[in-house]
Amino acid sequence: RTVDTLLAFGNQGRVYSVPVAMLPGARGDGQPVTTLIELESGTQLVHYFAGPSAATLLLSSSAGYGFLATVESMTSRLKAGKAFITCNEGEQICRPSQASASVSNGFTLTGGTEQPAASARTWGPATHVACASTGGRILTFEITDLKAMTNGGRGLMLIDLEAKDTLAGAAAYTRSIKITGIGRGGKDREETLEIRSLNNARAARARKGKAADLGFKPTDIARVE
Can you tell me the distance from the alpha carbon of 52 to that of 159, in angstroms, rounded to the nearest whole number? Predict the structure, then answer.
């Protein structure tokens, strides 16, 4: 009976939407999302989010640009979805980050792994944005420095990236975030940064940020609180 929408994000910025009520219920193997949409040729689904139309997400790309958008603005009645996040050749979209208050049944998936559900914790509206580059630089700034874009696009520059550096991800937060990545020997690593560490990396939007001594290469960033 839910009226929530499942958003499926293509690697080049196209967003596909499916009413959650259309998904298979009860137990079982479920149904491939690709049978419910018309996937553009050459597109891979890389991120997912389910929530109400009023939920706001922080969207970003590996080029270091981003903006805010609601689920409603990304929803389309067409199975072919909607071109929403502008990506140039060689760029990828980063995992969306929930910026609004907690929503029932909200969740995100990356690489087939479900992230902590909003229903399992209480989140208030995000107040800041944290950016992490693959080169190990971190920048935080107030979320009010970003604008909502109902028609999508490229957005504003989040962080000024060095040559050959890319954005690993951007997360909306109030107190803490978790950075995951790859360390020596290809081992998975992660580190949670609390408000004090995040404040040390605080500057104006579109600055270069601060080099972080993480000891691994960041590949993703997610909101903890």
Answer: 29
Exposure letters 180-200 (e unless 16+ CB within 10 A, then b): bbeeeeeeebebebeeebbee
Tokens of 171: 């997360």
Question: 188 and 215 in contact (C-beta within 8 Å)?
Answer: no
Residue pLDDT, tens place only, 117-173 = 433 456 789 999 999 999 999 999 999 999 999 999 999 999 999 999 999 999 999
What pLDDT does residue 110 have? 55
Count Cβ atoms within 10 A of the Cβ of residue 83 and give its class: 0-12 exposed, 13-18 middle, 19 or more buried. middle
What the block records as the tokens of 31 is: 């149904």
Closest to 46 measured CA to CA, from 225, 219, 223: 219
pLDDT, tens digit, 9 for 90 and up, residues 155-166: 999 999 999 999
Q: How many residues does the chain have?
A: 225
Can you give the three-state secondary structure of the chain, one letter per residue? CCCCEEEEEECCCEEEEEEHHHCCCCCCCCCCHHHCCCCCCCCCEEEEEEECCCCEEEEEECCCEEEEEEHHHHCCCCCCCEECECCCCCCCECCCEECCCCCCCCEEEECCEECCCHHHCCCCCCCEEEEEECCCEEEEEEHHHCCECCCCECCEECCCCCCCCCEEEEEEECCCEEEEEECHHHCEEEEEECHHHHHHCECCCCCCCEECCCCCEEEEEEECC
